[in-house]
Amino acid sequence: MDKQIPAIFGEMVFNDAEMKARLPHDTYEALHRTIELGRPIDIGMANVIADAMKDWAVEKGATHFTHWFHPMTGYTAEKHDSFITPQPGGAVMMEFSGKELVKGEPDASSFPSGGLRATFEARGYTAWDPTSYAFVKDNTLCIPTAFCSFRGEVLDKKTPLLRSTDAVSREAVRVLRLFGRQVKRVSSTVGAEQEYFLIDKKHYAKREDLILTGRTLFGAPAPKGQEMEDHYFGSIRPRVKAFMEELDIELWRLGIYAKTEHNEAAPCQHEMAPVFTTVNIATDQNQLTMEVMKRVADRHGLVCLLHEKPFEGINGSGKHNNWSISTDDGENLFEPGDTPSSNAQFLLFLTAIIKGVDEYQDLLRLSVASAGNDRRLGADEAPPAIVSVYVGDELERVIGAIVEGSAYEDSARTFMNIGVTALPRIPKDNTDRNRTSPFAFTGNKFEFRMLGSDFNIGCTNVILNTIMADELAQFAEELEQAADFEKALAELITRELRAHERILFSGNGYSREWQEEAERRGLLNLRTTPEALERYTAQKNLDLFARHGIYTAQEVASRREILLDEYVKTVRIEARTMLDMIRRQIVPAVMKFEGDLAETAVRKENLFLSSDAERGILKALTLLTERLIGETDDLEKTLDSTCGETLAAAYACAKTVLPAMEKARATADDLEKRTGRTYWPFPTYEDILFYV
Ligand code: ADP
Ligand code: MG
Hints:
alpha+beta; binds magnesium ion; nine-stranded mixed sheet; Creatine Kinase, Chain A, domain 2
């Protein structure tokens, strides 16, 4: 097998090597200029590329092509067209034109636009993004594209990402010039670690909640959870191992650097980590990874759950977004340097991200806001809803010294002054990682850990790139005008670290004390999705996006509307599923058990035997069933409050519907523990989590 991997890697991708081999030299060169410098593509060139791409795809078995894009709904969208073109005499030819490659016009009316587009102007268009490679999946040539309304408003998650990549590149290049560095482009790089659950399809098929909502709405804890800590990195069961092997192969064929597969903390929970790449490709690849996971699981009689909190009482699933920025000649700008001058450059970039995270805590928080992720954040397993930065012990000491204006004493016990000419040698601190921090510096990159497992990583990286671009632009503005660069630089770093020191936190992020401490520091704690999303349109955020051409105010408003609406719909579907399962499954099952108990009691009484045991159980069950029915009716009433304007409806979901659901669930779970196993209408946590 090992020998074949290099041969299969990327075989379904129209990658650089394939383009070099198949395109005329000048077309290949021109395409590279487009990719590297953002030059437009002319139609003649597009025709040549399209033809070569089609020939390649047909060799890989493709019969259709699709513009593959990231609409505002969770996953990716595609509409398949075949390559056939009728010919005289009833024959067909396989054709694909430059026009079809570059631009598509899907009917956009069924995708959410948050009020940006009226249905009478339903047309939207997709535009080829040549910075991400085309690939073949399911006999279809998939062309990564951006999706816009006919008037050019963004309707997807890709367009703003590309804009933010340009913004951070532009401003970083500007800052680097001040350090005498001439680079053409800076890219952000991302490695997205993906957590997921795998369960048996047989169990899944019997749970309406899993099918309709992706999570369990009921379920008393199994006698065993994750307390033995025997699952994390534990040996992988053969069925899962077979899944992982096939997953790796599928991902490799699609050119995805699947690197690490292991078990996670909760039973049935696993993780896949790829090797990082540029953010645009990483985003496409993460979407593909999630899709492939689901398909491969299906072939193994398994179901891949990507919900953030499929089971209560055990860990949920997240996604770690490892993010950095590097120059086109390969210098990672978050790599602490070896010389004072490179350290000064590193400290400036570090200061920029610290300032950015502090000023835009709300944006980072709302980039991970969803009904599912609200259940995970702060639940003892994931960072809380408070955004903070962890830089590691050594860097913290360096920053502390800068802030206090004192001399820094490094581990080697040599004293240094904090001036640019004599900045400390910054030690690499890879070991002592704080796992509870939402945004942790891990040696040469930042790991943002608040993302939910089923998120598109686009939004978070738009925010990271944009805040970075904004702070760098401010710094460049100031430093470009300075008479004495080094002095101005030292002053700027000191001033900004002092102003934003409050965002640094290295203690236990899961603790109650941190919640109190964060409040004292004036940090935001936006516990629910509506609280977070409400801030999307705050003036400072609109200004930020406008300054860098990421979103217009209208586009931000539409995104807020779409996400709030999605939240409301999710909660409403969950509540309705719950009502259905209680009324049509749980209550009838419990009543059947009660009926059998009552019958047994009567029969025993006829024989002059005691029926105290049956009576005791029956009484408890009757009380609980009555309570459950009452709570179900209350839950149904709360749904009335979720029909109005979206923000108010979202708050109603958070404040009334979800608490009513919690109540009903607690009673139903209590009933589960008291009802005969054979009567219970669907598989329990024990059945699902401990399958063989
Ligand atoms: P963990 O201990 O959290 O599993 P690893 O050190 O294994 O972390 O790396 C996690 C991820 O970070 C991997 O996907 C890796 O490719 C990615 N990564 C490493 N360097 C960079 C970088 N410069 N930019 C973005 N991601 C990176
Ligand atoms: Mg990680």
